[in-house]
Amino acid sequence: MSSEPPIVVGVDGSDSSRRALAWAMQEGRARGRPVRAVTAWQLPMIGGGLGWAGPVPADAIEQTAQAEEAAARERLEEAVAEEAMASGLPRPEIVVAEGAPAANLIRQAQGAALLVVGSRGRGGFAGLLLGSVSQQCAQHAPCPVVIVR
């Protein structure tokens, strides 16, 4: 089973991403493919965009990065553990990556059988302004994409 291309699923802790995880795990079992659960994290804006905040010590940036990565890993591990327990299916491989969610999912989908993402249903003006991870993945992924609502 491990030599088969994986099913990659984006998980950010939201309800829609948890539904996507459940769907991907069921599909992995049905297709006999491994599942790779991916989450992304980014450093928050320092200073809140209100103007120049002055220099930030490198150790403060490193501590913030470590905290953000740890929080992302904890959210992903919790979602995976809960879904594995509820479904009785094997736990997927997990990947925690720094950077934009869509870019990371597209990168992880290289060579994948399928990319699965949730949809928060944001549309209209907000969707146009912000774009959406599911929309970016649908347009740029190197494999078929399933958007779970």
How is this fold's topology laid out?
Elements lengths: L6 E4 L4 H17 L3 E7 L16 H30 L5 E6 L2 H8 L5 E5 L5 H7 L2 H8 L4 E4 L1
Parallel strand pairs: 1-2, 1-4, 2-3, 4-5
Can you walk me through this structure?
The protein has 149 residues and is an alpha/beta fold. It is built from five helices and five strands; from the N terminus they run βαβαβαβααβ. The chain has a five-stranded parallel beta sheet, sandwiched between helices. β2, α2 and β3 form a beta-alpha-beta unit. It is globular. The model has no long low-confidence stretch (mean pLDDT 88).
**Averaged pLDDT:** 88
Instruction: State the end-to-end distance.
Output: 28 Å
User: What would you call the structural class?
Assistant: alpha/beta
Number of strands: 5
Proportion of helical residues = 40-55%
DSSP summary: helix tally: 5
- Given as residue ranges, the uncertain stretches (5+ residues, pLDDT < 50) are none
Remind me, CATH topology?
A: Rossmann fold
In this structure, how is the largest beta sheet organized?
Answer: 5 strands, parallel
| Oligomer designation | single chain
So, CATH architecture? 3-Layer(aba) Sandwich
Integer-rounded radius of gyration = 17 Å
Q: What percent of residues are in strands?
A: 15-25%
Q: What strand order characterises the main sheet? A: 3-2-1-4-5
Tell me the series of helices and strands, N- to C-terminal.
EHEHEHEHHE
Number of domains: 1
